[in-house]
Amino acid sequence: MLVSNIDLGPTILDIAGYDLNKTQMDGMSLLPILKGASNFTWRSDVLVEYQGEGRNVTDPTCPSLSPGVSQCFPDCVCEDAYNNTYACVRTLSSLWNLQYCEFDDQEVFVEVYNMTADPDQITNIAKSIDPELLGKMNYRLMMLQSCSGPSCRTPGVFDPGYRFDLRLMFSNHGSIRTRRFSKHPL
């Protein structure tokens, strides 16, 4: 089952007996899992995001390296994080075990990995899978990036209870949301 740090708060409140329907937390309580329950609904996907830490300056301790590196060690071993900002949706369902990622770069680079066949994420299958599947994964990524509270717990695109509802993307107090990594509004 896909769990995340966003599930810790709801779990603690659930253990304390607090009504989770009164919260605006994105996560879900792990208490049913911890109690060994078998007949409950759980998410099929989770959002993973990383914000690159590089800056457009050269590290003074390593002047021979180009701008954009961060966390340099004494021997100029650095993390190239300047162009490594991404958002992913990790999906685990009875039929699918995928990771779909979009990078915040000039081309909005997309990576898709079949985590069953390729757990080390060596072969990017984004150009060889069904475009409809890519569209579903892109839609779910946008939904998870723009959700808040209970709306983050809606069924994923591979859940039997899933239904496409564009209004869900625009339900945040009437404001129109845009994809974080898109150059064009929705």
Give the strand content.
Answer: 15-25%
Biggest sheet descriptor? 4 strands, antiparallel
Work out the number of β strands.
6
What is the count of helical runs?
Answer: 3
Strand order of the largest sheet: 1-4-5-6
Q: Percent helix among the residues?
A: 10-25%
Radius of gyration, Cα only, in angstroms?
19 Å
Overall spatial form = globular
Poorly predicted regions are 169-186
Averaged pLDDT, please?
79
Give the SSE string.
Answer: HHEEEEEEH
- Helix-strand makeup class: alpha+beta
Distance between the termini: 31 Å
Pfam families: SGSH_C
Family: Belongs to the sulfatase family.
Protein name: N-sulphoglucosamine sulphohydrolase C-terminal domain-containing protein
GO molecular function, one term: N-acetylglucosamine-6-sulfatase activity
